[in-house]
Write the structure tokens for this entry.
Amino acid sequence: MSNVLLKNIGTLVSGDIEEPLLKADAIWIEDGVIRNVGTLKGMDEKAAQVVVDCAGTTVTPGLIDSHIHPVLGDFTPRQKQLGFLESEVHGGITTAISAGEVHLPGRPKDPAGTKALAVLAAKAFASFRPGGMKVMGGSLILEKGLVEKDFEELAREGVRVVGEIGLGSVKSPEDAAPMVKWAKKNGMVVMMHTGGTSIPGSTTVGLKEVLGADPSIVSHINGGPTACSIEEAEKLISQTTMAIELVHCGNMKTAVEIGSLVVKHKALHRVIIGNDAPSGTGVVPLGVLRVLSLLAGMTPIKPEQAVCMATGNTAKLYNLNRGVIAEGKEADLVVMDAPMGSVGNDALSALAAGDVPAVSTVLVDGKIVVNISRNTPPPVRKPTVIK
């Protein structure tokens, strides 16, 4: 792979919510990995095979969609659309995490079948990158009859996530709690459907059910509609250490209220951002960007903090070597700017104004996979790629 240099960076968002902004104007990439973050003066521009002149715009880590429902390949039977994952790449998404392949027609609901689906999807997406996106697929849907040895077997086969509890026949905390313990023992991250019945077949889940199951993530705490009252949501934020997920396909009023609560309780480091598409709401390629603009524009959350929620926070939860701009991290990056017509003068001020920023360039493992998004408005300033 070639050496890649990003230069003339105006604003650099780190992905680390403890230090969201970095004082640097250049990034050096070798073999798909970030090797240097600093000033152009300290880098050998002549040794780069690809140079991206960012023209004073903003660079962030590649966004991570913490909540998708794929099946196999880049097709959604839920909305009968092709290429929905590739479209998300044009919204700055470089990694997406399955919350369960629940939309598979004829989905098996016995222990052997649910295990087979998880293993198949995990292995298929490990080798398939739609539009360049990295997909963590194969999230186990909990069905009655699963035993501890099943979780040991699944972990050996590469299954790292338990999809939303409540999607399968395991719905009550009494049934879920032992399986959650087995999953965590084998290194899996566990999601739990929270809120109302967003689509036929889902269930209403509130504070009592979440506390009883003890998942890793309170999935879509802003529901869609929400059965978790704001009082219950505040207890989940203030009295637990679970990750708090906000999604686009949910209740926007509740998302704004939750945004203020996580600031109040100093829980910004626990918030992750997802799309929750495809769903009844549809396919929303810019869903994560829209949540970022909502939080930055309507809550006390700063735009750079919102970006970190959709990058480093999620990467840390899933132990991914990306989502943060630092030496040794995978070079998944997004170059973005204010969209034409925005009152903002850069990507972050555009987010603070409630606008979706313009995605210019997307890199995955240091390789350019998007050069001007087909889905966002055009940028005020366009980077130049020199090869």
